[in-house]
Amino acid sequence: MISKKAIANLRKAATYKKSLSLPFLPVILCGQAYAASSGGGSLPWETPLQTLTNSMSGPVAYSISIIAIGAAGATLVWGGEISEVTRRLVFLVLVISLIALATSAYSSLFASGAVF
């Protein structure tokens, strides 16, 4: 036979499970919410960021990044004794040019759908 203590423990467990599922109730019950893509005003920083994104994926950025990769590589290989600050700046230029190159290559290879 089941004791009263066991029944009380089962009730507490059921209440505990209900309290854990309570925060997820709005997610389960509400329908899908769609983000508005148009309408309303745009934020003031969206236009400069979109311009920067377009500039980072164009043919000029691709050419500049190829030249920067070559120059940074030549500096690292034949630079001789350069200071640590200069070496870090060369690595920074190399990373930025690789990011620009990857962005241009990604946008030209996968031009459909969401592009950077």
From TrEMBL:
Signal sequence segment: 1-35
The protein's name in its UniProt record: TrbC/VirB2 family protein
Membrane-spanning residues: 59-78, 90-111
Domain of life: Bacteria
Keywords: Membrane, Signal, Transmembrane, Transmembrane helix
Lineage summary: Bacteria, Pseudomonadati, Pseudomonadota, Alphaproteobacteria, Acetobacterales
One Pfam family per UniProt: TrbC
